[in-house]
Every structure is written in structure tokens, then in C-alpha cells.
Amino acid sequence: MPRILGIDIPNNKHTNISLTYLYGIGQKSADEICRRAQIDPSTKAGELTEANISAILQILQESYMVEGDLRRQVAQNIRRLIAINSYRGQRHRRNLPVHGQRTRTNARTRKGGKKTVGAIRDRSERKQANTGSK
């Protein structure tokens, strides 16, 4: 497995697909990197030579922000939004969707599991709900 910027990229996939395993590199960027490094994108990543890997590393370091630096920048941007108390920062703080999605239904990934609100009328169901939550 070739190792690029501390990430093992899969051997058995084409080079342009393997490069997308790096955080911050998508399909279009991976194709561009292969073109600039003069590597055939359909070459398997396991067949890359040391010269090819060093060419990819050179291009990544000079032209792209990837992995740790990019993650740090994204986290810093979110912290800044929270600090200035913007609307987006408030949504981040409350763990709600940030980009205008509806929350009356859906949004379960961001909000977490359902929390039932209201009274349970039947005594047996109420007893079951109390024992199930503890």
C-alpha cells in the first residue's frame, strides 16, 4: 500500500480513485494531480513507483491543503462562527442543521435519536416507557 501524507491508499484501485481517500481531494482534484504528475489515472496504485509517489507528494504540498491542515482550518472556521455568535455558529452549537434544511421532520443524523414529548395516556404503556428509559 502506498503511503501518502500518512494515509495508506488502496493498492487495488486506480490511482485517481485512490487519491480521493485523502481528506480534501475529490475526483476532479485527483484527475488534475494525475495529469500534472504525468501518471496514467487507470494505473493501479500498487504499481506506482517511488518517483511517481514523490511527484504526487510534491504537487500536494505545493498546491493543495489536505488532511490535518485542512481539518484544522475547518474546525477553526466553525469555532470562529460560534465565537462571533452568528446564525450558523448558533446552529453548530445546538447540533442542528446549518444550511437551511428542515427540522420538523428528518434531520435525525444531526439531531440524534427521537425524543418523545408529551403524556402517555395508557398506564401500562407509561410503566413500560419508565422502565425502558432507566
UniProtKB/TrEMBL annotation:
Presence of the UniProt keyword Transmembrane in the record: no
Keyword Ribosomal protein included in the entry's annotation: yes
MF GO annotations: rRNA binding; structural constituent of ribosome; tRNA binding
UniProt-listed InterPro entries: Rbsml_uS13_C, Ribosomal_uS13, Ribosomal_uS13-like_H2TH, Ribosomal_uS13_bac-type, Ribosomal_uS13_CS
Basic residues composition bias: residue spans: 92-114
Ranges for region Disordered: 92-134
The entry's keywords: Ribonucleoprotein, Ribosomal protein, RNA-binding, rRNA-binding, tRNA-binding
GO BP annotations listed: translation
Any one of the GO CC terms: cytosol
Family matches, as NCBIfam families: uS13_bact
Subunit structure: Part of the 30S ribosomal subunit. Forms a loose heterodimer with protein S19. Forms two bridges to the 50S subunit in the 70S ribosome.
Family, similarity comment: Belongs to the universal ribosomal protein uS13 family.
Function field: Located at the top of the head of the 30S subunit, it contacts several helices of the 16S rRNA. In the 70S ribosome it contacts the 23S rRNA (bridge B1a) and protein L5 of the 50S subunit (bridge B1b), connecting the 2 subunits; these bridges are implicated in subunit movement. Contacts the tRNAs in the A and P-sites.
Name by which UniProt lists this protein: Small ribosomal subunit protein uS13
Organism field: Oligosphaera ethanolica
Gene name of the record: rpsM
